[in-house]
Amino acid sequence: MLSGRLGLDKARIPHGDRHGLLWLDRGRLEVESGCLRFVTAGGGELAAGDYQIPHQGVSIVLLGPGSSVTHDALRLLARHGCGLAAIGEGAVRVYTAPPLMPDSSAAARAQVTLWADRETRMEVARAMYAMRFDEIVRTRDIEVLRGREGARIKESYRLAAERYGVPWRGRDYDRAAPDSADLANQAINHAATTMTAAASVAVASIGAIPQLGFVHEDSGQSFVLDIADLYRHDITLDIAFGAAKEAMTKPESVDRLVRRRAARLFRRKSVIPSMIDRIKTLLRLSGSDGGENSHDDGRETG
């Protein structure tokens, strides 16, 4: 049995222990004698071995590349309310996230209550802006807030390009032909996708409602996009422009470089645990600390 908090040894298995996130890759998740086990030959985050998984103390299993899962394992996870999401390397993609069926509806109820009232919905939107830019905007007009956000992001693009020495002629994105954009814009598109995947995991983990956003409105993933945007001006741009810089000298696709860099930064900066803490703060759930202690604001510059 694995030792440590929630039955997990952090030196052996990457795990956001406060939130019950368990990362597994390159192995087989199965059931033996009524116990959930993960068998791996190594090559990923885990050394080769046969690990017993304490699923009753885990909220969600994040199953990475090179892994398989048996029907019995899915049945056992469902019986004990433990979710499973198939993810890309380092959670830079999320391919499936079955309903988590959390024991408490507190997050969903809090979100609906705040979203349903125009005044509190605007308060949450302003809190999101303050988290991103350390500035409190007093406006009660969401369009004004979006305009301020757009201006700040435009400047963030310019500064990030300057910091990494990447040519920048402004944001240019054609949804019909995404590969027609220049290197930096392609990298931003790919980086935004990785951050959306991480936010999907965070929103699903806490049992919040993806469709009810406070800044975004039309998308079925509006709240996911809200949370992803909390990291857009710093981590997303560090991923994008850092990968674009690498792509200028390496014979690899910018998409692959973005994924690799994102996986590294997600783990080093505890992005998903930070997202979960910030969701708790925004939804005014008790016991939240805002995630400020778990979020590394340092930037990777190489």
From TrEMBL:
<dbReference type="InterPro" id="IPR019851">
    <property type="entry name" value="CRISPR-assoc_Cas1_ECOLI"/>
</dbReference>
<keyword id="KW-0460">Magnesium</keyword>
<keyword id="KW-0255">Endonuclease</keyword>
<dbReference type="InterPro" id="IPR042206">
    <property type="entry name" value="CRISPR-assoc_Cas1_C"/>
</dbReference>
<keyword id="KW-0378">Hydrolase</keyword>
<comment type="function">
    <text>CRISPR (clustered regularly interspaced short palindromic repeat), is an adaptive immune system that provides protection against mobile genetic elements (viruses, transposable elements and conjugative plasmids). CRISPR clusters contain spacers, sequences complementary to antecedent mobile elements, and target invading nucleic acids. CRISPR clusters are transcribed and processed into CRISPR RNA (crRNA). Acts as a dsDNA endonuclease. Involved in the integration of spacer DNA into the CRISPR cassette.</text>
</comment>
<keyword id="KW-0238">DNA-binding</keyword>
<dbReference type="GO" id="GO:0003677">
    <property type="term" value="F:DNA binding"/>
</dbReference>
<feature type="binding site">
    <location>
        <position position="216"/>
    </location>
    <ligand>
        <name>Mn(2+)</name>
    </ligand>
</feature>
<feature type="binding site">
    <location>
        <position position="149"/>
    </location>
    <ligand>
        <name>Mn(2+)</name>
    </ligand>
</feature>
<feature type="binding site">
    <location>
        <position position="229"/>
    </location>
    <ligand>
        <name>Mn(2+)</name>
    </ligand>
</feature>
<protein>
    <recommendedName>
        <fullName>CRISPR-associated endonuclease Cas1</fullName>
        <ecNumber>3.1.-.-</ecNumber>
    </recommendedName>
</protein>
<comment type="similarity">
    <text>Belongs to the CRISPR-associated endonuclease Cas1 family.</text>
</comment>
<dbReference type="InterPro" id="IPR042211">
    <property type="entry name" value="CRISPR-assoc_Cas1_N"/>
</dbReference>
<comment type="subunit">
    <text>Homodimer, forms a heterotetramer with a Cas2 homodimer.</text>
</comment>
<dbReference type="GO" id="GO:0004520">
    <property type="term" value="F:DNA endonuclease activity"/>
</dbReference>
<keyword id="KW-0479">Metal-binding</keyword>
<dbReference type="GO" id="GO:0051607">
    <property type="term" value="P:defense response to virus"/>
</dbReference>
<keyword id="KW-0464">Manganese</keyword>
<dbReference type="Pfam" id="PF01867">
    <property type="entry name" value="Cas_Cas1"/>
</dbReference>
<dbReference type="InterPro" id="IPR050646">
    <property type="entry name" value="Cas1"/>
</dbReference>
<dbReference type="GO" id="GO:0046872">
    <property type="term" value="F:metal ion binding"/>
</dbReference>
<keyword id="KW-0540">Nuclease</keyword>
<keyword id="KW-0051">Antiviral defense</keyword>
<dbReference type="InterPro" id="IPR002729">
    <property type="entry name" value="CRISPR-assoc_Cas1"/>
</dbReference>
<dbReference type="GO" id="GO:0043571">
    <property type="term" value="P:maintenance of CRISPR repeat elements"/>
</dbReference>
<dbReference type="GO" id="GO:0016787">
    <property type="term" value="F:hydrolase activity"/>
</dbReference>
